[in-house]
Amino acid sequence: MFIEVLKSKIHRVTVTEADLDYIGSITIDAQLLEAANMIENERVDIYNITNGERFSTYIIKGEAGSGVIGINGAAAHKARVGDLLIIASYASMDFEEAKQWHPTVIFPKDNHLQ
After folding, report:
1. Any catalytic annotation for residue 58?
2. Helix/strand/coil for 45
3. Percent of the chain with pLDDT strictly greater than 90
């Protein structure tokens, strides 16, 4: 049996840009991606702390050290510049393996590693 478990989480980052005219996705600072064990094109769930919205999209790698958290396309209706987000990704694994699994969770300060 396989189950889905939390793989990675970026906890409490601030949206720095929102672009309705983009084709979709979330742009995330490359340093945050590396620290959180996430990769470009990975599916993520976005939990908007500010307004309660939840949605799924995929990652675009942003400039390292920029602190960018950009909401693109239709999702820009669900998160505005200044909103606080949690970004989470999940992995499927064997039930027994999952019992020993420890996700990568980071807590950036002002969208940068501390």
Report:
1. yes
2. strand
3. 96
Q: Which CATH number fits domain 2-106: 1.10.510.10, 3.20.170.30, 2.40.40.20, 3.20.190.10?
A: 2.40.40.20
Mean pLDDT on 3-32: 96
What residue ranges do the domains of the chain occupy? Answer: 2-106
Q: For residue 78, what are the CA distances in angstroms to 26, 45, 48?
A: 12, 13, 8
> Is residue 15 classed as helix, strand or coil in its secondary structure?
coil
Residue 25: which of 63, 76, 64, 65 has the closest Cα? 76
Q: Which one of the listed residues 22, 25, 47, 66 is annotated catalytic? A: 25
Phi-psi region of 73 (alpha: psi -120 to 50; beta: other; left: phi over 0): left
pTM above 0.90, yes or no: yes
List the catalytic residue out of 22, 56, 58, 92: 58
